[in-house]
Amino acid sequence: MQLSGLMNSLIILLECLHLPKLSRQWMKYLTRFAQLLTLQNYVGIHIRIGNLSKKQYLNSNTSLYHAIKNAEQNHHALTEEGLRAARHLRNDLEKGGIHLSSEKLDRLNQLTINILQLCREFNENIVTDPGHVDIFPASRIPKKLQHLTKPIYRLPSSSSKISAGLNSNIKEKGLRLVTESNALCSILQLAPDAEVRKLAYMAGNSAPHANLVVLDKLLSARHEFSEIMGYKSYSEFALKGNMASSPEVVLSFLHDMSKMVRPKAEEEFKKILDFKRANSNQSVEDLDPWDEAYFTRMMKSSTHNLDYSVVASYFSLTCCIEGLKVLAESLFGVKFKEIPLGPGESWHPDVLKLSLHHPDEGDLGYLYLDLKSRKGKHPICAHFAIKGGRRISDTEYQLPIVALVCNFSGPNFQSVHLHHSDVETLFHEFGHALHSLLSRTDYQHFSGTRVVLDFAETPSNLLEYYAWDYRVLRKFAKHHSTGDPIPENLVKSLRGAKNMFAATELQRQVFYALVDQTLHMLQPSSVKDTISIVADLKREHTCWKYVEGTCWHAQFSHLVTYGAGYYSYLYAKSFAATIWQKICKDDPLSLDAGSALRSKFLQQGGAKDPTIILDDLVGNSAIRNQNGGIVPDISSLSEEMKL
Question: Active-site residues: which are they?
Fold first, then answer.
């Protein structure tokens, strides 16, 4: 138990390095002092403090390894969870190559360092080089979108001077759009000029170009690592121990889902094309990728009479935080209470600290909320486990501490209003937080979200359902000026708009998962290979064409963080659909539903096998065996989406 606590304390420190309180300089200092090299679920855990020799790597400590193996073999004194912890610790060490020769182990440790550096470089490039496009004249971008841009000037061309009768010394004003994700999304949804949308799409999906080389090196390093470990591919290595168990099982699942969703996605594609033709002044033969967001938004608004600014008026950030409290109290009989922060405890004045309290059990854990955007803050929405829960003694339990970090914009906290997609994101991350706060495991190794990768997103996907249910929304979504609850018809319109292109969105997620899985199954020999692989997969598994010259995957950060594991979102989506149908749909805020979710699911963390958890919660309807692995039953999801 002490070893599990030590190793998880190291993981916690690594996670804390990502929290917004740490400046770039402080992060560099910490990295030099304590270089925690971890690729969770992939290569085990390694630690080097200061200038200690490489022999201090945990995956070089054979005495530790043999002690764990001995405890596992002589397990009569261990609880069931203790035996599971010993097995997991051994697997972690073996995934770091502890059982290999010293020569191979040295190469693995060097590859681990290289992989970590390449992952960091990939993510830094996304932030520092999001791409940009210059639009002339400035009038081509609507005024309501010009706050996303910066003015630029150029000397007009000779022809434009003559046609406009301009003085040769007067510069033409244009606008520069930095195509980071939020700005690009707004332009693609709201800019009526198709050429502007095309230019923005091309720029936003062609940067950072340097990541093509970084990705090529990363895939090569991961492949070499896997070969040394005795696997045919990185995907095969990464999936060992997951529910899926092998790339073949994952690909079979993804191909089945691709076939299932194709007819409905094609229907949706044709509807968008027909709408474009009906609303264009010229002949239209096809849809372009930069058309999708623009026309689907128009179709949703017109079909369901949706004004998104009206929707946002019911979702102030203050109301949404109240919604999290209502959800927790209704389901689990617990209350979040705001408590004061100690000196130096907060990394920014916007941060709130809440305690989670049960009337009989006392405090269950602590939650930091850092939800508002600000200059210099990383554009992320994420859950961080600052400290995992664990049994210290028969009478004492180490309470979990977690943080939710989001980027909702507004001049001050009281004026922040969320788009409904932001509400869904907040509830998604809150699902992770509840998993961490309500788990009660003996070992920190299994606390909360520390489960196999293809089960980890299930609570967060389940909580998304609550963001769409009127019975939930009416409890907290109040108009910012009148205080009236959100009308039921408005929620029905939101749900109708969501369902209009649900198959298209699911098809996109299948495509993303196939890109991730395919790249990690192969050994691409050049940057060109990754581009051609992505292009071929898009043509085969989506209704949308690939645009020559783009390299969307150069900014797909999940290739770094979820290497060969992006399919897990679709696993979670399928599991969540079954749990919602079986447990929550009839009365989503009932204590009975909450009791089942807490005792049979959230409380278990990773201390039990997910197949046992699912069977206990919903019976054997959630999973099926396939080619030696476990795949979700997709009937509930298929029924929900009318596929």
Answer: 429
